[in-house]
Amino acid sequence: MLTKDYVNEVKTNGNSALAKAIEGLKNTSSLSYFLENLGFLPNDFDGSVLLPFISHESSNVRFWVVKNLGKLGDIKYIEPLSKIVKEDTDSMVRREAVSSLGRMRSAKNIQTLLSLLTDPDPKILAQAIRGLLVFKGNTAVDTQLKQLANHPNEFIQQVIQKEYFPKKIKSSHLPHAQTYDYLKNVVVNGDVREILQAVPDDSIHLTFTSPPYYNARDYSVYPSYKAYLHFLADVFEKVHRVTKEGRFFVLNTSPIIIPRVSRQHSSKRYPIPFDIHPLLTEMGWEFIDDIVWLKPEASVKNRNAGFLQHRKPLAYKPNPVTEYLMVYRKKSDKLIDWNIREYEWKIVKESKILGNYETSNVWRIDPTFAKNHSAVFPVELCNRVITFYSFRGDVVLDPFAGSGTVGIAANALERHFFLTEKDEKYFQVIETNLGNKSLFSKNEPRFVTLNEFTLLTKI
Ligand SMILES: C[S@@+](CC[C@H](N)C(=O)[O-])C[C@H]1O[C@@H](n2cnc3c(N)ncnc32)[C@H](O)[C@@H]1O
Questions:
Q1: Ligand 1, closest atom to CA 405?
Q2: Which residue lies with its CA nearest to atom 15 of ligand 1?
Q3: Does residue 386 have a pLDDT over 80?
């Protein structure tokens, strides 16, 4: 029986032992197993023992032959690998051959790689681009790669745009980790759409929010579902402008049900997360993650009573025990590592998430019910979002602050809050909740109207 240990032993006995062992492997599955487990190849390994199998009838065998030749990075295999690229019928084998040619970093491969820029398989194209970018600065390479700037495949487009046409980001007046003092620990009473007009570009580090519901109670506020989505998109576009480069926006939403008017009508379910998502990506938010907030079934409204009795198909109504936390990042050519490097090491160290943490995208958290607001966040939910997506001293925005839970959590975690709330009654709840809290920072909390805030920004 073939084992990894046997393959290893043969490998260390030199090329002729290896050639003999391979020749002795009569069936395809043993040959595949042997080639797959060759692992690291010694410098003096002679790839020619593999060449007889490069046109083997099994695509798996061909794949592993190509992969092993690729590990050698030797230009003497350019010809057989180029032949595979041109002639093999299996896309995995071809992709591996392009990758192997690229890894050689040899100018001799430029023509072959350039000839692949019209390949219909975007993965072949991506591998060819990767191999060619090593020769950035070579006129032929640059000219042909630039022509892919509007390629229909978004991934190819993104790579070329980043390499050759990087967006010029308006330089912010402040370093990435810093922001304006008048945004620190401030709660503004007013319509977020007006308030954000007074907030400068690139000034907020993180936004976490749960928007007002589109439901029977709020019906008069939003004349239609379309108008409601339009309102949310308007707010989130403004949030995008004020967000610092490459920083996060976490949106809590879930589909909602508008109950039926009478027995002659049916209830209607609106898929808010799915409808708002394309609007968000369109305006420049890059989708990062979907986190599911899972609540105990006993804490949600029961829709099952009817079905439980009659058990008739089509009338099944599961109890919705989940909400989404949709995680987005302000689109940027810069990697997240860049964002992190913009902070002093001391801040990064103090912001580390130590000990146990939720490793999956399902967060089991009990909902919170409050007397003074009908839809408050559990503090635990805010704690997780704030610690995972911001640093100590950052400014965290909640444009629909409600009772101010994001502010309470931000302060406890040594972040600043910037909250906006339209309803005077809830604004006062926030004042009660936050006004008497001892604050971590020197920035005393301010509870202001839109006019007062506008004045603050001018001081
Ligand atoms: C779902 S609640 C947020 C509750 C909050 N997460 C908490 O923990 O208390 C949404 C809030 O958005 C507020 N709101 C609605 N439209 C607004 C607007 N245009 N500007 C600012 N706040 C608004 C509502 O008054 C409501 O308090």
A1: 8
A2: 212
A3: yes
Residues 6+ positions from 73 with CB-CB distance below 8 Å: 103, 104, 105
pTM: 0.85
Query: What is residue 376's DSSP assignment?
Result: P
Instruction: Identify the top-confidence range among 225-239, 305-319, 434-448.
Output: 225-239
On the question of a common fold for 4-164 and 181-458, the answer reads no
Per-residue pLDDT reduced to its tens digit, 155-177: 999 999 999 998 776 666 799 99
Regarding beta strands 446-449 and 243-253, do their DSSP bridges make them parallel or antiparallel, or are they unpaired? unpaired
Alpha-carbon distances of 397 from 353, 406, 409, rounded to whole Å: 21, 8, 12
Instruction: Provide the residue ranges of all domains of the chain, joining segments of one domain with +.
Output: 4-164, 181-458
Tokens read off for 424? 């005077």
Which residues' Cβ are closer than 6 Å to ligand 1? 191-192, 210, 212, 373, 375-377, 400, 402-403, 405, 420-423, 426
Q: How many CB atoms lie within 10 A of CB 81?
A: 24
Answer whether 415's CB lies under 8 Å from 390's CB: yes
The tens digit of pLDDT for each residue in 60-119 reads: 999 999 999 999 989 999 999 999 999 999 999 999 999 999 999 999 999 999 999 999
Q: Which of 192, 222, 422, 448 to mutate to test the pocket of ligand 1 (most atoms within 8 A of CB)?
A: 422
Distance (angstroms) between ligand 1 centre and the Cα of 193 equals 12
Q: Got the DSSP string for 282-315?
A: HTTEEEEEEEEEE--GGGS----HHHHHH--TT-
Domain 4-164 part of CATH 1.10.10.10:
no
Q: How confident is the model at residue 219 (pLDDT cuts 50, 70, 90)?
A: very low
Closest CA to 280 of 324, 323, 321: 324
Q: What CATH number does the domain located at 181-458 have?
A: 3.40.50.150
Residue nearest to atom 25 of ligand 1 (CA): 423
